[in-house]
Amino acid sequence: MFTGIIEEIGTIRSIKRGDRSAVLDISADKVLTDVRLGDSIAVNGICLTVTTFSSRNFTVDVMPETLEKTSLSTIGPGSQVNLERAMAAGDRFGGHFVSGHVDGTGFIADKRSYGNAVLYKVEADETLLRYIIPKGSVAIDGISLTVVDVTETGFTVSIIPHTLAGTVLQYKEKGDLVNLECDMIGKYIERFVTWREQKKSRASLTESFLSEHGFLD
Questions:
Q1: What architecture is the 104-194 domain classified under in CATH?
Q2: Rounded Cα gap, residues 108 and 200, in angstroms
Q3: What is the pLDDT of residues 65-79, one digit of tens each?
Q4: pTM given for the model
Q5: Where are the Lumazine-binding repeats (predicted)?
């Protein structure tokens, strides 16, 4: 579990690609201070497992599902990535519940200054937009952000200078792909409501109902 408060920006040192998988070697500093093998580190919002590490870098395995459904397929050596260690019990909780399980990707449709902030408009598929609401939470490349507005094709977020300076969003431009994780609370609510409706539907298929509508002789 993560909070969406990025700890530092790391740099991809190398990528070893297999047929459909990859091994990333990432240089970092802060996230390595107490790292252990098997620890979880969110890389651009994707929960990945540390397989080797030193005082200056760590490696993670990326499976086919992750490469296919996230923006990791677009990065290369020298690319910079957001990094966050898994939340420890007792830590301050400054963002929102972020699982590190990316729901899909969107792309930056617009970027413009607005006072002391920068407004980003992100376009995404309707299967993701159904979970995004004004003033709700969304994780973009692992960054916990508050939604400003939602349209039929996308949503906007407003980034303050502090967040911009400490994350890879400062390097993102129009057309760039970003990882999106919707608020898990909304997804759980939808699942619960859908399950209840399905259960009611199954319960209504009684013998008398089927007979009345000609399904039984």
A1: Beta Barrel (2.40)
A2: 41
A3: 999 999 998 999 999
A4: 0.86
A5: 1-96, 97-193
